[in-house]
Amino acid sequence: MNAPLIDPFARAIRYLRVSVTDRCDFRCTYCMAEHMTFLPKAELLTLEELDRLCTAFVHMGVEKLRITGGEPLVRKGIMTFFRAMSRHLDSGALKELTLTTNGSQLARFAQELVDCGIRRINVSLDTLDPAKFAEITRWGRLPQVLDGIEAAKAAGLRVKINAVALKGFNEDELFPLVDWCAREGHDLTFIEVMPMGDLGGEDRLSQYWALTDLRARLAERFTLTDLAERTGGPARYVRLEETGQKIGFITPLTHNFCESCNRVRLTCTGELYMCLGQEDMADLRAPLRASPDDAGLEQAIRAAIARKPKGHDFDYSRQAIAGQMTRHMSHTGG
Ligand code: SAM
């Protein structure tokens, strides 16, 4: 174990989100354009390079790895990577290996994920209506995702559903979603929509559904108790007293959560972003490819963490954040 990663504000970096691909089998309207140009293969980190990078972070104290995309489960050979990462769970260095997925490939991979030591997953699902699902994801089919979630549950994975709150789209599904999650035993988190994807000006504004409003509507039917639990990220949780359910709210644009921030994000091309709300990043692919020895890489990671800003405030333009999110294809809840 090398010296831990501590940033200039005495925050230990324990959480790394890794985007393993920019590709996805869905085209959610708020996330991607229908016709995307994806990165050439040479730009992408290979699975071996992803392993080296993640391992370097684990050796410097990262305890939680979240794999995301694009859609992580469409990356060819991705199970080899999960299997490789499971060695860090076995050694005790890594406390949690997890992923955020659209669920389309879960029927195929759920059992293997469990075998790799994964215990909990986040599945993104905004609606339980097949027609609306096809509309919002463009290419997705609801039954395939529901089968995937079922397979995950059957394999023993704990599932958290992440739903993007979209005004005029799934507003009327607030209670059906909550009830379905209660019945199925899934946790549920709502994500505030961020301005990206194909939603142009007017649409974008009209789809914004403030989570304060969503929360107020929940409170009309349930007794909400705020939970102290924080993950170092932009999620806050409440318990619905009547059902015992835990509901999360991810509000990257309207909440300040920086003081407890313990995370950094790596893109599939090896760019490390130190803050969700700022554009600064460090290229780790060059030092990674420069030498088979990890000394230069470790130095580059430490130099990047030394630049982690204290935080971002509400002044950052939504566009700047959206730019970063698009490149990551990963999200806070995500
Ligand atoms: N493909 C995987 C999935 O669907 O979960 C992982 C990547 S996806 C980009 C991660 C999360 O970001 C999903 O929950 C998705 O709904 C969310 N997301 C994408 N675009 C968003 C936006 N404009 N605003 C809020 N959340 C968004």
TrEMBL record:
Residues the entry annotates as binding [4Fe-4S] cluster 2: C258, C261, C275
Positions bound to GTP: R17, R66, T100, K160, R263, V264, R265
Database matches in Pfam families: Mob_synth_C (PF06463), Radical_SAM (PF04055)
Enzyme Commission code: 4.1.99.22
Keywords on record: 4Fe-4S, GTP-binding, Iron, Iron-sulfur, Lyase, Metal-binding, Molybdenum cofactor biosynthesis, Nucleotide-binding, S-adenosyl-L-methionine
Family note: Belongs to the radical SAM superfamily. MoaA family.
Cofactor note text: Binds 2 [4Fe-4S] clusters. Binds 1 [4Fe-4S] cluster coordinated with 3 cysteines and an exchangeable S-adenosyl-L-methionine and 1 [4Fe-4S] cluster coordinated with 3 cysteines and the GTP-derived substrate.
Annotated NCBIfam families: moaA (TIGR02666)
Residues that bind S-adenosyl-L-methionine: Y30, G70, S124, M194
Assembly notes: Monomer and homodimer.
Lineage, broadest ranks: Bacteria, Pseudomonadati, Pseudomonadota, Alphaproteobacteria, Rhodobacterales
Organism encoding this protein: Gemmobacter nanjingensis
Catalyzed reaction equations: GTP + AH2 + S-adenosyl-L-methionine = (8S)-3',8-cyclo-7,8-dihydroguanosine 5'-triphosphate + 5'-deoxyadenosine + L-methionine + A + H(+)
Protein name: GTP 3',8-cyclase
